[in-house]
């Protein structure tokens, strides 16, 4: 799980296996919306405080908050 708090993703980098699902939980007091950085391959809905977003991760990706683009995170997918 990735917690969003104080305008940061915690942990900033998360390692997973292919097919794992990751949940982002917004514990901040403002909405956030995350998206894959380069091509917007995936995007969450607007996540209000207390809401979460679940995604099955297929490949390594960098992501950011669409609403606050200085917020950046990374998911590393490794097999084996
Ligand atoms: Cu944000």
- What would you report as the Rg, rounded to the nearest angstrom? 12 Å
Number of separate domains: 1
Q: What percent of residues adopt helix (DSSP H or I)?
A: under 10%
Tell me the CATH superfamily: Cupredoxins -  blue copper proteins
**CATH class (first level) name:** Mainly Beta
Ligand inventory: copper (II) ion
Protein described:
A 4-stranded mixed beta sheet has the order 2-1-4-6, with no helix packed on it. It has strands at 2-5, 8-10, 13-16, 21-26, 34-36, 52-56, 61-65, 72-77. The protein has one domain: Immunoglobulin-like (Sandwich). The chain is globular and about 40 Å long. The protein is mainly β. 0% of the residues lie in helices and 45% in strands. The protein contains no helices and 8 strands. A hairpin with a 2-residue loop joins strand 1 (2-5) and strand 2. Bound molecules: copper (II) ion.
Write the layout of secondary structure elements.
Layout lengths: L1 E4 L2 E3 L2 E4 L4 E6 L7 E3 L15 E5 L4 E5 L6 E6 L3
Parallel strand pairs: 1-4, 3-8
Antiparallel strand pairs: 1-2, 4-6, 5-7, 7-8
